Amino acid sequence: QCKPPLKVKDLFIDIQDGKILMALLEVLSGQKLMHEYKSSTHRIFRLNNIAKALKFLEDSNVKLVSIDAAEIADGNSSLVLGLIWNIILFFQIKELTGNLNRNSSSSSLSSGPSGPESDTSHPSTPSVERNMSVTVKDQRKAIRALLVWVQRKTRKYGVAVQDFASSWRSGLAFLAIIKAIDSTLVDMKQALAKSARENLEDAFSIAQNKLGVPRLLEPEDIMVESPDEQSIVTYVAQFLEHFPELEGEDFTDPDKELPIESTYVHIKDTPSEEEGKILILSESEENMYTVNHERSHPAPPKVHIHDAPE
Q: What CA–CA distance (Å, rounded) separates 109 from 60?
């Protein structure tokens, strides 16, 4: 989004002179940083550019632990990724869950996550600085807020989302969010007959082509034993920007227990090639769920489903 546009070919290399980092923060914050950039092959100038970017983040109360200019200038992959995650969390996830908060008069997070769009214009205001502080508690609240929103949007289609990891492997959760945005884009009954790979591919393709949500993930990223939580959180947060209306009921206090809904369901036979995937139908066949079953034990004739956070 820079003018002229900047292209990142290798994050760990391109970030080392500070230009990409300063340009990214300028676009996200709306504040001017690039005028302080000094182009040079000398390490001291590269360190100075990065230090200015890190100072900007610190002044915004974005907590950076063990991340210094030298490590970024050397392209330390772990710390570069840690830095980018903190930027994503502060400028995207915290801001978007703050939007949910502003649409809910009953939320207790009024002093919690909030976006930079209204805050950065008055950085010296004490209350604003408190709101912009990304503490560990804030991080958890922001992610929990996103999870609550996802649960509210997917439960109507019989998809139980308990976390930002294994709950997404079948692809049904991604499809349910898309259907909540535009019901004409997804047929959940057809999705139940497809493999996880097909559902994931469908979801990422539909989201990109129909909703304009950038394809940050591939099926292979999700079809693993422990999908990366931060990657899924980052991707799912994008859907908040594309949801047509944010209602007050979309967000409540993440620490408040949700009402428990339960139902008895029958196990439906599943082809052996669909490893770990078992489709279960309620007796009325109105709601359908996908669960993981340990194949070393025989499948029970009935399963009692509790739709609760734990």
A: 19
